Amino acid sequence: MNAKNADKIATGVLYAIAGIVILILAALLGYILIQGVPHLSWHFLTAPASAFTAGGGIGIQLFNSLYLLLITMLLSFPIALGAGIYLNEYANPKSKITGMVRMTIEILSSLPSVVVGLFGFLLFVVQFNLGFSILSGAIALTFFNLPLLTRSIEDALATVPDLQREAGSALGLSRWETVGHIILPAALPSIVTGVVLSAGRVFGEAAALIYTAGQSAPALNFGDWNPFNISSPLNIMRPAETLAVHIWKINSEGIMPDAQEVSAGASAVLIIVVLIFNFSARYLSSYLYKRLTSTK
Amino acid sequence: MDEIRESLLKQSKASRKDQFGRAISFSALALIVIVVISIFYFVASKGLATFFSDGVNLWGFLTGSEWAPSQVGDNGKPLVGAAPMIIGSFLVTLLAALIATPFAIGTAVFMTEISPKRGAKILGPVTELLVGIPSVVYGFIGLSVIVPFMRAVFGGSGFGILSGAMVLFVMILPTVTSMTVDTLRAVPRHYRESALALGATRWQMIYKVILRGATPGILTASVFGMARAFGEALAVQMVIGNAALMPHNLTSPASTLTSVLTQGIGNTVMGSLENNALWSLALILLLMSLVFNLAIRAIAKKGAM
């Protein structure tokens, strides 16, 4: 076999592999959307779930997912921002300790999410007696989210050229003022992208939540916005089953007669939300970039 | 005079602000490190209790093939053999990585060398999107497509290691592919040009130059995918059948470390042997993710030219 024939065969094989992969990926997306989208309706998106009869919705779970995402972001963004600023602006890049800290963050990002969830269960649910609650879940998700968010914020800060820092110093600004007034605004578009993409990841996470935010969704009274009432949607001490956990639960317990339909619909919702996050990350970042840099 | 002296000797406002900022951002970083240390401390203290306070033999735990922590075996010791789960975890992980890596390499080569236009237009965005799909969705698809398919082809219940490996294969494929694409793109352009100038065909260039140059990166991508597959809990738990038995073939119900953990933790009493044994499984998971991490570092160090 000469080299030319080998080249032709190899090209054919590569086309075939790429074709198979496209087929698998397209089938995957198509399956979820075709199975799920027909079940979507206003009733499905807003009605509470019903455990033993068909026709339940995912209203409470959807709200829980979004609320949990909000609380998680409120907890993790300041920490990740601080850590990212320290790593990129203050830490000595050559010191051994900085290297160790980076390794620690990398280890945290590679920990299985179920282990992070179990840790949250052990420490917050049991030890600190927070019970299965949105708060415990949000803390577990924060641990799960911190390494990647820190990394993306650090990367975003690193793309700002050092000229800007030198300009700040030359004007007599302290390093902190330079960060606050010059570096952060310049890095904002990429930071926003990082935050939104990590939000998509947090939204679909389930393994870290089954033993922290719990697997039950008590009825909520959407007229009651006092965060201290037990049935108020804003209460952070109530157990809250999220959408992803709901899909897992109805599939592994199998007592719901229309589990297949409900999980198909819920999967479609999850994927559509993740899609929205992805697109809005791109859109927001280019919008902010244009806005802040007066690029036409 | 004194006023000037004082203002010169005193810390300036800017420097105080800087110290404040430094302290705040440092404490955020310290918090992350503390979290990691405490995860290791708490899981290890729970997981090691099986061996120290319940007196289970470590070797027996790792190699024993019977998992029934609430029962006592013939020798009067509790039946905590974790081998079925450990083997199950490794089998699904290796199988998934074995299937996914060639597909990922092929797709990545296609995207970077053969048809960059189509790669950038179709494959790129699709893989990016699929990286973000929640793992329960993969589990649900596995349950409603792959398990019935396995049932039809191999008989039995359809649950098992093969189904788990297939779900994980689809799940890690986008991640491994996009990482491989990054490493292939990082191979310098002049490598390609020199190979072609020497009269190599495109395939010779790909096979003899580009793939060789990108080997460390491809290995990293593959190990990264394995780490993800090893730690995945719910998608696997939904399709593997959850029988804590030694796997005899690939299509009978089995279990992994993560699947036993997700099922068991809620049904055991904190502090009991049943519960501690589960924490030992979690400790194994934790140590394995450390091993994967070190492997990636070692590859990166060796591959750095």
TrEMBL record, chain A:
InterPro entries: MetI-like, MetI-like_sf, Phosphate_PstA. It is found in: Cell membrane. GO terms for molecular function: phosphate transmembrane transporter activity. Gene3D superfamilies: MetI-like. CDD domains: TM_PBP2. It is a multi-pass membrane protein. GO terms for cellular component: plasma membrane. NCBIfam families: 3a0107s02c. The chain crosses the membrane at residues 12-34, 67-87, 107-125, 132-150, 262-281. This is Phosphate transport system permease protein PstA. Pfam families: BPD_transp_1.
TrEMBL record, chain B:
InterPro entries: MetI-like (IPR000515), MetI-like_sf (IPR035906), Phosphate_PstC (IPR011864), Phosphate_Transport_Permease (IPR051124). It is a multi-pass membrane protein. Residues 86-296 form the ABC transmembrane type-1 domain. GO terms for cellular component: plasma membrane. It comes from the Bacteria. Gene3D superfamilies: MetI-like (1.10.3720.10). GO terms for biological process: phosphate ion transport. This is Phosphate transport system permease protein. It comes from Weissella minor.
